Amino acid sequence: MKKTKKSTFFIVVAFIALFTVSAIVGLDYLFGDSRKTIIKGVDDIRLGIDIKGGVDVTFAPSGDYDADDTQLDAATEIIKTRLTSLGINDNEVYSDSKSDRIIVRFPWQAGESDFDPEAAVKELGEMAELTFRKGTDADTDEEGNPIPTGEIVLNGNDIDQAGYTEQPNDYGDLQWVVTLSLTSDGAKKFAEATAELAGSSTPISIWMDNEMISAPSVNAAITDGNAVITGNFTNETSKKLADQINSGALPFKMETSSFKTISPTMGEGSLDAILLAAAIAFGLIAVYMMILYKVPGFVAVIALCGQIAGSIAAVTGWFGFMPGSTLTIPGIAGMILSVGMGVDANIITGERIKEELKSGKTLDSAVRVAYKRAFSAILDGNITNVLIAVILMGAFGVPSSFFSKILNKTIFFMFGATTEGVVYSFGFTLLAGVVCNFIFGVFFARLMVTSLSKFKALSNRKLYGGDAK
């Protein structure tokens, strides 16, 4: 094995320091009137509703209606559309087909002290109004929102089904399109409108409530009740438009099955208390480690700083190969627990160094053997936490998350989606912290201790828990 040099300690410390500063401060610059972010810092962390306050609501079809997957997808899409129209862009919306639920989470609107979450929830759960209109003309209300004025061609009751598929275009290449199947009355209305507008510059616009979601041109009269909407669609955008159209013809009404709010004051107060307690605990741990283990304890404190920075970087999305995550109060608890595991790893190693020195080994040999033998114990303890974190992320993550896709097909397929996204944050930060523990608390710590032991002033065995020789 290649010998560690004296300079290794300074190189590792410089790397940890730069990484920590970049993870906390981030890096951005002004480009014109907008700010461009290169590296995200703590100010870019997306806080959960349990910290900054918000709404957690679950919708379900009223009565005993059993909605199918297509209808739930359509209802989910209309809720997303309505959240956007309300100016609530920071939200989570997903459906659970196993229990016919739609789960919605969104924070309090920034800068609004009189925001009424119950009114917003009521508006989200109301039936959507779908209309097909001649042209794209619209007036505006007092708040500047559009109000369509074009003549109505079709409404939601005239749509039998909307779908999406791939069809060849004029050049023989496959393209995604949205298909429409109309009722008998809808087919008659559509035939008259398309015959009038065929070949003209006036499109037939599609409106969801007061938001225009598409405005396709009319190429020819459509008399058989089956229409195709073409455009620069992808699989995702064609499905989205089909779901939006289907949502206007839903045969069920949604009702609120659960509803809870968290005030911003309560969440921010909890965050401040947790951060203060964590800072005090870290300070006490740092003093304890340096007094009890001296050089290895000093190195452990540096490694813990890197581990915390790594956990923050994982949450912010600092790493380009993985997305960030919403930070909740349980997520902070996951960070603290992973730091505790990091402390345990350094204690195991420190005690092992003491034992090897007392057995008569040289300092270099004791450090090398101690890290080698301690690794298996550290690995066993952390593997358990990795498994717990993965299970939590699979069980409590949204259906589109990586671990949910895997585990829901093999283990949790009978349970359906969960409403507790805050637990997912705990699993995420715990997993990130454990990974960082191996990087900083094991690998980098070994490099630093081995490097420091090369300095004559730090080669005294007492500084590592042994007896002087």
What attributes characterize this protein structure?
four-stranded antiparallel β-sheet; 15 strands; 12 helices; 50% helix; 469 residues; alpha+beta; Multidrug efflux transporter AcrB transmembrane fold; Gyrase A, domain 2
Short description:
The chain is α+β, with helices and mostly antiparallel strands.
Describe this structure in words.
- There is one protein chain.
- The protein has 469 residues and is α+β, with helices and mostly antiparallel strands.
- It folds into three domains: 7-44 and 263-464, Up-down Bundle (Multidrug efflux transporter AcrB transmembrane fold); 54-127 and 254-262, Alpha-Beta Plaits (2-Layer Sandwich), CATH 3.30.70.3400; 130-247, Gyrase A, domain 2 (2-Layer Sandwich).
- The protein is built from twelve helices and 15 strands.
- A four-stranded antiparallel sheet has the order 4-5-3-15.
- A hairpin with a 5-residue loop joins strand 7 and strand 8 (146-148).
Q: List SSEs in N-to-C order.
A: HEEHEHEEHEEEEEEHEEEHEHHHHHH
Structural class: alpha+beta
**Portion of residues in helices?**
40-55%
**Can you count the beta strands?**
15
CA-based shape? elongated
Please tally the helical runs, counting DSSP H or I stretches of 4 or more residues: 12
CATH class of the largest domain: Mainly Alpha
Q: In angstroms, what separates the terminal alpha carbons? A: 27 Å
CATH architecture annotation of the largest domain? Up-down Bundle
Strand order of the largest sheet: 4-5-3-15
Radius of gyration: 30 Å
User: Would you identify the regions where 5 or more consecutive residues have pLDDT less than 50?
Assistant: none
Beta-strand percent range: 15-25%
**Major sheet attributes:** 4 strands, antiparallel
CATH structural fold name of the largest domain: Multidrug efflux transporter AcrB transmembrane fold
What is the domain tally?
3
User: Mean pLDDT, nearest integer?
Assistant: 81
Q: Give me the CATH superfamily of the largest domain.
A: Multidrug efflux transporter AcrB transmembrane domain
